[in-house]
């Protein structure tokens, strides 16, 4: 079978090649799949996509016309795929429904700690042999309140770490996690979570109901010295409202591993390019904002699980099996 994978990093490539070696022909591309690059998928029965690929109806129509029958996404989220259009076109769609939740949860804490303790600023100074402490004062997380928006597998892993810090636990989700409750988490509405939390971490999927869940109103409810961390999806935060909040001198720190308009920017070297995204450029100017490159999932453990599931999705497609990873089942008749 002919497989083409998009947005493949140098670290990921050998894992993908090993997973398919001897069974299928794999082509790995660093390209993002969108309307400009979709011609490169012509003739490939399987397209292996990433979260920043644009799989809207026009792209899916060209994939189907070019012989694609399966789209297997190397991620849990799938808001970039028009599932209705895929079904209309007879395309099967699968994803990685779960992988190591610890990878993302631990990185969310890395951002929270780095922002709180001014680690980036300190490291930059000490490289210049400036060892002053002025401006580096943080605070203990112990005894303070953490608000966890979304307590699925990742949110629960994040909560376990928060409990280890000795924090008061607030949570919000459509269904309570028994494990989080056993740790002492109190479930409440969003407004109270935003208002009372010293640290807020987002762990919900991007859906119509969660798009810009952190908007101007939510930001106004937050404490002036709150810390906000997002390792889920960029669209959860209204970035324009966040910039205005920071311009007003509010929020002690922000850690962002994702950004709403990251497609075509994250995962690439844009160091020599003119920055055309004014919002992202402005966010980068705030000393209390730390932006990373959508790397929270990027551990050997998690990527290994993602690749293994992706390989299984291809075998399930060949066997016409549906699993928990199937988003759009194969058509009844080819």
From TrEMBL:
Residue ranges of domain D-isomer specific 2-hydroxyacid dehydrogenase NAD-binding in the record: 110-296
Residue ranges occupied by any D-isomer specific 2-hydroxyacid dehydrogenase catalytic domain in the UniProt entry: 9-324
| Entry keyword set | NAD, Oxidoreductase
Q: Name one GO molecular function term.
A: NAD binding
What Pfam families does the annotation carry? 2-Hacid_dh (PF00389), 2-Hacid_dh_C (PF02826)
Tell me yes or no: is NAD among this UniProt entry's keywords: yes
| Assigned protein family | Belongs to the D-isomer specific 2-hydroxyacid dehydrogenase family.
Name of the protein: 2-hydroxyacid dehydrogenase
